[in-house]
Amino acid sequence: MEKNNGGMKLLVAFLILLYVISPVDAMPGPIDDVIVVLMGFAMNRKQIGGD
């Protein structure tokens, strides 16, 4: 059975964009923005489940 993760990928991309452009940061500087973007790419590429 195929899984359609298009909606989830779009949601993750939107949340990453929202975090990067928001004035609220976990750490000063661009370091946390880069970390969030890299984690988002990793989440979108990882396939969950073995079926």
Word description of this protein:
The protein has 51 residues and is mostly helical. It has one domain. It is 61% helix and 0% strand. It has 2 helices and no strands. The chain has helices at residues 6-21, 31-45. α1 (6-21) runs antiparallel to α2. The longest helix is centred in the first third of the chain and has 16 residues, at 6-21. It is elongated, with a radius of gyration of 13 Å. The N and C termini lie close together (8 Å). 0% of the residues are buried.
Summarize model confidence as the mean pLDDT: 75
Radius of gyration: 13 Å
Distance between the termini: 8 Å
Series of secondary-structure elements, N-terminal to C-terminal? HH
Domains, number:
1
Shape: elongated
Give me the secondary-structure category.
mainly alpha
**Strand runs, count:** 0
- Main β sheet profile: none
* Share in β-strands: under 5%
Uncertain spans: none
Helix content: 55-70%
Number of helices: 2
Could you outline the blueprint of secondary structure elements for this entry?
Blueprint: H1 6-21, H2 31-45
Salient structural properties:
51 residues; mainly alpha
